Amino acid sequence: SKRIKFISISVPVLYGNHAIRLTPEKRKPTTPTDHTHEWTVFFKPVLNNIDLTPLIKKVTFKLHETYENPVRSIEKPPYQVTETGWGEFEIIIKIHFHSGAELGVNEKNFQIFHGLRLHPFNPQHPTKENGEVHSVLYDELVFQEPTERVFEILTRK
Ligand code: SLL
Questions:
Q1: How far is the CA of 152 from the centre of ligand 1 (A)?
Q2: Residue 24 domain boundaries
Q3: d(CA 21, CA 39)
Q4: N or C: which end of the chain has fewer CB within 10 A?
């Protein structure tokens, strides 16, 4: 469908990770002994009433090569991956939009680099006694000169 000139729509999004230190009680029998943390990396719109599923085909999370099948592909919300591990590394979060004449969506894929955090920023003053870490960042998906179809999807109530 036609593009709307001089308009751009920003969708506020959050991405990042939560992590907890593994205690003996939280370990599963299958958890490798050298894994010290359980973490979840995620991507989501800030507002719960925004539905991006008509636009997003999948979100991929590219993990460190030490993980089996490091590229994890999530096709519907919640867009997140939970794993256990021992180290921090950079995760590439890639938003893949539907392409196709019928939807009229033709946005470039959007890429985010997230440094997975397992440890508190200041180990002398951990934010949470139990070793929980939350590293959540804000960004905006910007749709420049959206097609009429994309405009409708992003502005409907
Ligand atoms: C480091 N450069 O040395 C980083 C690499 C890799 C993290 C961290 C293990 C995964 C698994 C895992 O936590 N890898 O064994 O399944 O700190």
A1: 43
A2: 16-139
A3: 9
A4: C
CATH number for the domain that contains residue 127? 2.60.40.1970
* Cα(10)–Cα(24) distance, integer angstroms: 44
Measured from the Cα of 64, ligand 1's closest atom is: 6
Look at residues 19, 12, 11 and name the one whose alpha carbon lies nearest to residue 135. Answer: 19
Q: Is residue 63 part of a domain?
A: yes
What is this structure's pTM?
A: 0.91
- The verdict on residue 148 lying in a domain is no
What's the confidence (pLDDT) of residue 110?
87
Take residue 92 and report the two structure tokens written for it.
């590439």
The binding-site residues of ligand 1, defined as CB within 6 angstroms of any ligand atom, are: 32, 64, 66-67, 85-89
Domain assignment of residue 90, yes or no = yes
ipTM for the predicted complex comes to 0.93
